[in-house]
Amino acid sequence: MKKYLWATLVLVVAVISTVIGYQRCQKPLVSVVMLTYKRADIVPRAIDSILAQTFKDFEFIILNDGSPDNTDEVIEKYVKKDSRIRYYKNDQNRGISYSRNRAASLARGKYVAIMDDDDESLPERLQKQVEFMEKHPDVTTVATQIKGLPRVPLNHDDIATGLIQYNNFGNSNTMYKREFQKRNNVKYDPGLKASEDWKFWLQMLFSGAKFATLDEDLHIRHGDSIKHYGISYEEANAPIREYVAQFFSPSNPQAFYTASACDKLKMIAKAPTKIFSQSYLDSLLATNCF
Predict the structure, then answer these.
(1) Cross-strand pairs, 86
(2) CA 211 to centroid of chain Cα atoms
(3) Which of 56, 66, 77, 254 could form a disulfide with 93 if both were Cys (CB 3.0 to 4.6 A apart)?
């Protein structure tokens, strides 16, 4: 009888271990998502930097946006070497927003880490972002510093202050909670040819997301690549500014940018979502409204 019970216990433990292992395989803690287009010559640098991470529990989703070069050949070599890579390709070039949305929709992890094909993540990037997110469950998204570039603000209020004026947060240095993004239906705007990342973060902010940044250089942005999706600065940013104005002053968007600092803050205070902590907003009002 004892032998039977022992054998049954061993079997149950084995089954449970198998199920847990399968679930972990199906749902890694982190989904790294990367869009690539016409960069077969430099994309190995980005891929290698992710595969060299000290944190190992991730899937690596690579989406080829219809590249006409030999990107397929380059990435297929990596697919054969590492089972964590999931490779997809658009039937034609569909643009940055469509492709970012498709890549994000394929993610299965608790957290989504964004990567760009002309950037490089330092080895401890994922590990330190995951550790921070696990210790701070109230934070929705966390960035790292980018080596050699202006410092990203560390706390939510300073990040939010910048975001309503320009993208001070970054893109491929970030990690966010997938469930929050899905629940609030935050997506890249397919009508944008650029600055789609800035509007993405604004949508997160206006949905109640809380931001933070690590004070460490864990990412490198290389400026030597050709920008295939680029348009003029003004063309890229004009629709984003309109989006911001409509959020804070829906009945008269233009009024937001022509208002005084005090009146802007009053509009922000009345917005449907509180983007600042109350103490920070009170301080701004006290300083600008007298």
Answers:
(1) 61
(2) 11
(3) 66
Place of tokens 């004026």: 165
The answer to which of 11-25, 27-41, 126-140, 256-270 has the lowest mean pLDDT is 11-25
Write the pLDDT tens digit of every residue in 55-109: 999 999 999 999 999 999 999 999 999 999 999 999 999 999 999 999 999 999 9
The pLDDT assigned to 83 comes to 96
* Residue 9 vs residues 15, 20, 263: alpha-carbon distances, Å: 10, 16, 69
Distance, CA of 167 to CA of 159 (rounded, Å): 9
Q: Which fold has domain 8-224?
A: Spore Coat Polysaccharide Biosynthesis Protein SpsA; Chain A (3.90.550)
Where, residue-wise, is CATH 3.90.550.10 in the chain? 8-224
